[in-house]
Amino acid sequence: MKAIRIHTFGGPEAIVYENVAEPQLKAGEVLVKTAAAGVNPIDWKTCSGGGAAAFIGDLPFTPGWEFSGQVIACGADVSGFESGDRVFGFVRFPEAAGCYAEEIAVPAEQICLLPPSCDAIEAAGLALAGLTAWQALFDKGGLHAKQRVLILAAAGGVGHLAVQLAKWKGATVIGTASAANHDFIKDLGCDQVIDYTSQHVAEMVSDVDVVIDGVGGKTGIDALACLKATGTFVTLPSNTKDEIIAAGEVLGLKVLPLRVEPNAAQLRLLAELNAQQRVRLNIAATYPLEQAADAFRDIASGHTQGKVILTV
Fold this sequence. Notes:
By secondary structure, the protein is of the alpha/beta class. The protein has two domains: 156 residues, Alpha-Beta Complex (Quinone Oxidoreductase, Chain A, domain 1); 129 residues, NAD(P)-binding Rossmann-like Domain (Rossmann fold, 3-Layer(aba) Sandwich), CATH 3.40.50.720. The strands form three sheets. Strands 3, 4, 5, 6, 7, 14 and 15 form a seven-stranded mixed beta sheet that branches. A six-stranded parallel beta sheet has the order 10-9-8-11-12-13, sandwiched between helices. The protein has a two-stranded antiparallel ribbon with strand order 1-2. Helix 3 packs across helix 4 and helix 7 runs parallel beside helix 8. Pfam families: ADH_N, ADH_zinc_N_2.
């Protein structure tokens, strides 16, 4: 079968589309014929030697942690799935999962049946960003109805799903984005939009209950001023989390980092909301699997509106 692999860490030029051995099904696993795989910043960062590179083991490495597809076979001790089922999931993170491949063997406990009305291409990009948004808003942030949430990078992969989930929860949603994305995030449910290129967020917003920081660095530190004293600030970029936590401690504020975790129960809720069209994934672009290098170049720009998807 065909898969994307790297044999050495590097940029898009390190990406190789080649023949690999078919996966061996183990107990507790489901063999899936892949329909599509989501492309995320963690993918290209890991392939370049950062991200989750410390967890993936020896090279060669096949990137990808989220997918959609159809069940081919089930291993021993698997129940709830059968051949022909449409499924999607976010699996094994931060260890290697190998979703950029024609077939994958995945833990049954980390995947979910895909409702008939859900599109497989859309579902391929929903799991990682959707779980990140869910866990940031609700598990870490404790967001509930009638609270106010500020979402930095509201037009991005995680951000645009966080806007929809927060609105579904009944919160007042404030989002930052460039002017070109204002209509997009307003349509998703943003009650207030801030142009980060021309406005200072700390001058525009104060006393919010939850901040979801999808940017990090100085932008994240500046946004600490928007949080109320009893609020929660959730920062997503791992490379700047320590400095933002330290800045929050100086101000006496609660700052929490997040490493997204596989969670089948939360996937089921996301799938239900997607089937009801309460939460939709905006697909910025799709590429065939063999053009994964081009997909990496696209997402590395940091300006995609929604998600980039590889079709298999």
